[in-house]
Each structure stands twice: as C-alpha cells, then as structure tokens.
Write a structure and sequence with these properties.
The protein has about 525 residues and is an alpha/beta fold. The chain is built from 14 helices and 20 strands. Strands 8-9-11-10-14-18-15-16 form an eight-stranded mixed beta sheet, with helices on both faces. Strands 1, 2, 3, 4, 5, 6 and 7 form a seven-stranded mixed beta sheet that branches. β2 (about 20-25) and β3 form a beta hairpin. α12 (about 405-415) packs across α14 (about 495-510). The two termini are about 35 Å apart.
Length: about 525
C-alpha cells in the first residue's frame, strides 16, 4: 500500500521524484489551480503558458509532464487536469479532485515519492485527494515477475513497474485534527478498496470458495471481527439448497461466511450480503466463448462486503455490521444442477432452475434468509448479478433496487456523495408473474426484458418481512476491461465498498436521511 503523509513544507522545499499541480479550464484559457502558486512563481509566472504550448487544456485527468525549473527540489512537475474552473466562490468538486489525484498517481508508477500540491480547501478535500492518490497508485503485480521482486528496480529486470511508494499532501496540516482524521479515514477506505480489487483480480484457480473463506477468516481475526464458516457438510445439513445447488457441480465446494463486527455503544445493525461466485462458467447453461474470460470477477459483491466490514472495524464505527459471503464455484459436471431441477432453499421455498447461469440469485436467496433471521435494521446485498443491468446503465454505473423508496434514495445519495455512479431502479410488481412455475414456488428466471429488475424481485422473496432492504447490482462497474482512467484501474475496481462504508458511517451517526 502506498504511504500517505501530510506535509506543511512548501512546493519549493520538499524533495521528491515529482511535484503534482492542478490545472483547469478557465473562460480565457488554462488556469493554474490553488496550491501551486509557488510552483508558478518558479516558472516566472509562465506555467500556464508553458503548459498550453505543450498542448495542455486542463481537461479532466489530462496529464502533462515538464522539467522542473531552478528553485524546485524535484526533477519533474506533473500537471493534471481538473476540468472546468469552479464558478465564483465554489471549491473544486470532490470527485474531480479524487480523479485528478488518481490519474496523477497512476502516471507516477515506478516513482518513490511524489508531492501533491492540489487545492485543499478543507478536510473533505484532503479526504478526496488522499483517497484518489491511494486508489490511483494501485497495481496488481502478484503474478508478474515474482523472481525480480527483490531487485532494486524490478521494472528494469523484466518485472512489473511498482506503484508510487509515497504520497505527500502539501497544504494538509498534520496537527489539524480534521485533516489528520481525513487522512486516516482515506487510508483505511482506500486500503480496503484495494484489497477488494486484489480479490477480484486473483485467478480463480487460487481463489476458490475455501481459499476466499480462509482469507476472510484470517483477516477478520486480525481485526477483532467474529467469523463463522459453514462448509459443505454444514450447508447440506442446514438445508442451504441454493448455495449447495450452485456449488455441487464443482470439485471446490461452497462456503457461507459470516463476519460480525460489533460496537458496545451501537444502536443499529446493518447486514451486508455479497454474491461470491469465485468462477462462473454458467454451469450446465454454459456461457459462450467471449463471455467467460472475466468471470473470476463474479465474487466482487462478496469482496465488497468483506472489505466494508473490515473497514467498519478499523474505523471503530458505532454500528453493528454483519457481513455474509455466499461463496460457490459454478461449474458443469455430472453432479451439477440441471435446468429443470427444483431446489429447496434455506427459507423452505422451492425454486425451479430454468437457467443455471442465473446462479447468483440462488446463493443470495439463502444468505438473505439467513441474514433476515437476525432482524437487522437494514440489509444491503451487493452482486454482479445481471448483464441486463449493464445493458440498462452501462459499465460505470450500478443499479439500486429496494423495498423502501426512502432507503433507496438514501443509498443513491450516499453513493453519489462518495463518487460511485449509481441509479435508482424500480421493482415493478407486474414482472413477478413471469417467474411463476408450474412445478415449484418460483422459477429462477422470468421475462428477458427488464431482467435486472426480475432478478431484484426474485431476491425480494427471500428478505424477511418488515426488514428494510436494498440490492446493488454492480455487474457494470465491478470489473473494468478498458483503459484505466482517474483512480479506476483495469480489472477489479472495488465497486460499492465506499458506498457501504459511508452507509455504515451515516447509520452510526443517525444521519441516514
């Protein structure tokens, strides 16, 4: 993890490999953002003119490097675009700062230390810049050039270019309680987002349900979180027909992991439920070529839940948080569930399986019922559930469904606040009939149009009566296949972690809206 420090040193006095400044699009051309006044002075007030000559426009995430002038103790100045200049008396948007810091940190992979002289108007800006830099510095190198890791510079020996080692935030005050708390929170949240990314990026031959459960157990114990793991024998005995039905086709048996963080003064309890399909082949309803190469990411919901519970513990939030990781590998074999089979879920409800590739809702159904038994104040499930949600919202936005409109609105507002694109989606009652089965209580498939909403309606069947519930379908943003941007890397993104953590914070303070 990249180290983070708060520094009162001026841009002209701090030694580092690079100095990051912000630039923006002004009404009359490029504008150097606050925090970089001393840097502009070192260029005799001509920094904006030099950058424009190099083609810089101030567009969001744009990177321009130039040699540092005499008077600065760094060899390189990196200018990152913040987008349009805010209107009069307004600060830069936190997400703009977060993305700019992320883009800069990503551009500095291989460097030991970088000083960030971006606008820091308040503690919220400190959080945004720190978070963005720590998330942007992320790189998954566990399977690259392992034999060169002890070399002084692995990249020169055929190994990976390592992440930026240290970020120094200039203008942040290490003795200011709010600034210090903001940096500490950003470090915790970014660390857990990056751990979720690591899990998503880990190859499925190494991250089986058993291996995921082992990682969760070890980490939980290190952080004072109680853990319970149900193996295949306990799941079979307990009647978890959904989880067992999905996992029985694989040589790697399923697991249900319960993580419990409690605070002695907590008045509220949240339950987070995560879909953890460590690899999804589609089962007997096998996915076609071109659709299964990235299916190691189908456990991203469970990764988000795991990371969020750990973050809540590290932050000492005054709320009880229980995480449920429904882990299975969906594979075709002679023992696999077949289309037409009927499963008896943990709730006792029977499900006719029409498509074994609609497996996430089956494992979540069991976990939602189990979570409901403890009667939490709210349940939020997180899942890479449907391609239909990607069709509806694209690959950067997750959908939010809920059985309570006010709660859905709150979750949406929280997601937007922390910089996670989301959109509230309905649960049309008329779509429920399409899941009627002549054989069982319900089928695991309904009409194709509105498939993401149908999946949400299926999950709702397994939520305890009177319990507030929301469903986050993160199928789009959980795994990024394109070029990196802002603080978002290629591969696992850690989607929904920041939303869940902020939800827990808001619940702890009673400020849920």
């Amino acid at each position: 993890m990249t180290a983070l420090t708060l520094s009162t040193a001026g841009p002209a006095t701090l030694r580092a490999d690079a100095l990051v400044v912000g630039v923006a699009k002004g009404p009359k051309g490029l504008v150097v953002a606050a925090g970089a006044e001393a840097v502009d002075k070192a260029y005799d007030g001509k920094l904006s003119a030099l950058l424009e000559a190099l083609g810089a426009s101030g567009a969001e995430g744009e990177i321009t490097k130039l040699p540092a002038p005499d008077g600065l103790k760094v060899p390189v100045v990196l200018a990152v675009g913040l987008g349009p200049v805010p209107e009069t008396d307004e600060s830069y948007d936190e997400e703009a700062l977060r993305r700019a810091a992320g883009a800069a940190a990503r551009a500095l992979h291989g460097s030991k230390k970088a000083a960030f002289a971006l606008p820091l108007d308040d503690a919220s800006a400190v959080t945004a810049v720190a978070e963005g830099a720590l998330l942007g510095a992320y790189a998954f190198t566990a399977y690259q050039g392992r034999e060169t890791k002890t070399a002084k510079n692995p990249a020169k020996n055929g190994g990976p270019k390592l992440p930026l080692a240290e970020v120094a935030l200039l203008g942040a005050k290490p003795r200011d309680k709010e600034h210090k708390a903001a940096a500490e929170r950003a470090t915790v949240v970014a660390t857990e987002v990056n751990i979720a990314r690591d899990l998503v990026n880990t190859p499925p031959n190494d991250l089986t349900p058993e291996a995921f459960a082992a990682v969760a157990s070890a980490t939980a114990k290190e952080n004072g979180i109680k853990v319970q793991v149900l193996d295949e024998k306990a799941l079979l005995k307990g009647g978890y027909g959904g989880i067992m039905g999905v996992g029985k086709g694989s040589e790697n048996p399923p697991r249900l992991v319960k993580l419990t963080y409690t605070h002695p003064k907590a008045e509220k309890t949240l339950a987070f439920v995560g879909k953890g399909i460590t690899y999804d082949s589609g089962g007997i309803s096998l996915k076609p070529a071109g659709h299964n190469e990235t299916m190691k990411c189908d456990m991203a919901g469970a990764a988000a839940v795991f990371a969020s519970v750990v973050a809540a513990s590290k932050l000492g939030l005054q709320v009880n948080v229980t995480g449920w990781l429904a882990l299975a590998e969906n594979m075709p074999s002679g023992s696999a569930t077949k289309p037409g089979d009927v499963l008896r879920m943990y709730s006792g409800k029977t499900v006719e399986v029409l498509n074994t590739d609609a497996e996430g809702r089956l494992v979540l159904g069991d976990a939602l019922t189990k979570a409901s038994e403890e009667n939490p104040d709210a349940i939020v499930d997180v899942a890479t559930l449907t391609g239909a949600m990607m069709m509806a919202l694209g690959d950067r936005t997750f959908g939010i469904m809920a059985n309570d409109d006010a709660f859905r609105t709150s979750v949406h507002e929280i997601a937007e606040e922390v910089g996670e694109a989301s959109w509230p989606m309905p649960l049309p009652a008329d779509l429920r009939k399409s899941m009627d089965s002549p054989t069982a209580d319900i089928a695991n498939m309904g009409v194709r149009m509105g498939g993401g909403l149908v999946a949400g309606l299926f999950l709702q069947e397994f939520v305890g009566e009177g319990i507030t519930w929301a469903h986050l379908d993160i199928a789009g943003p959980a795994f990024h296949e394109g070029a990196p941007y802002g603080y978002t890397p290629k591969g696992g993104t850690g989607s929904a972690v920041r939303t869940l953590v902020r939800l827990a914070e808001r619940t702890a303070t009673g400020d849920l809206g």
